[in-house]
Amino acid sequence: MQQLASKKEKEKMERMQGEVDLLEQPSPLNDKERLMIQDSWSKVYEHCDDAGVAILVRLFVNFPSSKQFFSQFKQIEEPEELERSAQLRRHARRVMNAINTLVENLDNPDTMASVLQQVGKAHALRHKVEPVYFKILSGVILEVLAEVFPEVVTAEVGAAWTKLLATVYSRIKTVYEEVGWPKLSTSTG
C-alpha cells in the first residue's frame, strides 16, 4: 500500500479530521437537521459542477497523496490545470451526484445504506482507497461549503452537515470492515 506523502501532509490530514472526529459515533439526524441539510444542499447543488471541482481541487492541493488513486490526473500539480481536467470534472460530478442521492434520501435509510455500500465496496475492493480519505474528504467538503456558501452554511447548518458526514464516514468504514479491508488504522479511523 502506498504511504502518505509526508509528515507535514499527515499532520494536515489529522487537523482536517478534527470536526468529523467529534462525532465518531454520530446520533441520527433529527427532522430539523435533515431539513437544514436539504435546504442548504439545494442551493449548493445549483452550482454542482463548480462546487464539486472546488472540493476535489482543495482535496488534491491540500492532500496530494489523495491523487495517487487517480491515474488520469495524479501527475497534475497546478490547481488551475486540475480545474480544467475533464477526468477530474467527471469525478467531481459523480461525487456530487452521490451526495445528492444521500441528501434526497435522508428519510430513507435503506437507500442511504445501499448507496454507501456500493461506494464503500468499490473504493475498498476496486480502487484500493484507504478509508481515512473519506474522513479527509468530509473535512474538505465542510471547509469548502462553509467558505463558498457562507450565507447558506451557517454554524448551525455546518453542525448538521458535520453530523451527516460523520455518519457517512462511519458507515463507509463499516463497509470496509465487512469486506475485510486489511489496513484499517485504529489511530486514524
TrEMBL record:
Descriptive protein name? superoxide dismutase
Which GO molecular function annotations are given, in alphabetical order? heme binding; iron ion binding; oxygen binding; oxygen carrier activity; superoxide dismutase activity
**Record bears the keyword Flavoprotein:** no
Q: What is its EC number?
A: 1.15.1.1
Q: Family, per the entry?
A: Belongs to the globin family.
Q: Kindly indicate whether the keyword Iron belongs to this entry.
A: yes
Task: Output the PROSITE patterns linked to this UniProt entry.
Answer: GLOBIN
PANTHER family (UniProt xref): CYTOGLOBIN (PTHR46783), CYTOGLOBIN-1-RELATED (PTHR46783:SF1)
List residues of the Globin domain: 28-177
Keywords, comma-separated and alphabetical: Heme, Iron, Metal-binding, Oxygen transport, Transport
Fetch the InterPro entries from UniProt.
Globin (IPR000971), Globin_lamprey/hagfish (IPR013314)
Write out the catalysed reaction. Answer: 2 superoxide + 2 H(+) = H2O2 + O2; Fe(III)-heme b-[protein] + nitric oxide + H2O = Fe(II)-heme b-[protein] + nitrite + 2 H(+); H2O2 + AH2 = A + 2 H2O; Fe(II)-heme b-[protein] + nitric oxide + O2 = Fe(III)-heme b-[protein] + nitrate
Q: Which Pfam families match?
A: Globin
